[in-house]
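Question: what's this shape?

___
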Amino acid sequence: MNGSSSLLFEDSSVIPFEKNLKDSVEETPKDLTYCRAILLIIKYALPSCFGLVLRKLVDNINFYFIGKMDQPDYISGAGLAMLTLNITVISLGIGLSGGVETLSSQAFGSGKNYLAGCYYNRAQVIMAVMFIFQAIILFFSEDLLVLCGQPKMAAKIAGDFIIKMIPGVWIVCQTELLRRFLTSQGVLYIVVNSQILSCILHTIWLYLFIDVYGFGLDGVVYATTITYVLSFILPVLYITFYKEVLKPQSWHCINGDSFTGLLEYLEFGVPSMIMLLLEVWGFEVLTLIAGTLGENELGASIICVTFDALIYQIALGMSIALSSLIGNNLGSGRIRNSQIFINLATCMPIIFFVIVAYFYIFQGEAIARLFTEDQTLIDLIVSTFPIFVLHLLGDYIQTCHIGSIKAMGYQKYATVVCLLSFWLVSFPLTYVFTYIMDLRLTGVFLGIAVGYTVHAAVFLILIYTTNMKKLSVKIQKRLECSNRALNANGLRNVVEFSEMSDLLNSS
């Protein structure tokens, strides 16, 4: 028995236990300067930004090929399908992966690499279970869309598209989970490199399946699924054969430790998911409101939001970078570094906003002409842009600080803030501005602007009133408890194996 116990601590292959912070935060020295911090944020954010834009680009390429089919029902059906998949599967999966941004980044910062890998595996287990129920619901998409008042033909096309896309959207969620896990340990380019290759091949698949083989809308499904699978499988295979690119002991198969501590993961993952859903669903509601104002207002709203969604990926990439950098430093106890990154999470979005606002206000017509040649619609968009940009400052600040919130593990508080700012402030004001004051589309974007301003302001108060030193100590204690639980589980496994060996030898 004693020999078994000592084996646990002598052989790191049983249960890895890191005794120091080697390689945990090597890129963020104790004497970190603001210039160095800015460069680190850019270094971490660029691959995420590029990868997120590439994922959006796949959808745009799809609709280009669908438009060439000269079937209006295909466009509406496919658009309805992608909207449904985004708000029912992809948003939930990406939101749930927020637990990895919190837990794995903190674990890597404290040098507990094996524990960080366990958090990633636990996320996979939870997402797999959740997806079973999602897939069952998606099989009834056509009927559900008809119940929601959608045209029957569009609902039929969307339902068929959704069912065939089920494997692909699950892979999207896994890819985004992997991206966040790798970023949390400073491995930045593996996923985006696979996406670049997959995106290049995507156009070839579409050409073959649609133009050569004539599969029609099914060809879009086949091409997209292949692209999504390649984006995930290629980095997984690369990591599997070249594990040295990751931190030691962080990449391992799902095992018994992956099924323990699930509640701990859900404590951070579920609020992250709800937080994202409140915002995503909120924007869909605002689109519906714009639709009640007329065809031109709906078109202008969709164009504004579509272009903004592309630019927004930069802020989102910064958020992913900040969650990793702040989480690493909180996990390692480097409070000053964490505060520097938090300060930059406030300042950098302001600079980004000024640049973006300039193009919206002074280059608005050029932007509008990227989407339409209808002069009436262009004039409406150009007149709307000065009001539309008002919400961007609050949006960019709160987006970057979502990275801070996740790094701190404050998702529960942030969920309440999202609920209040969007659903109890923004929507009522949008109704007042749009209908009662008859500001129409201007009222819609004014309501959004007030909501995001409140959102950002409360985030700033929450973050800057937190005692980071106490928070860091709390994080380190929680990680130590989780690591001890793994060690205790490993000790039980070693003891059971030893007793079984003794029994076999005696027989």
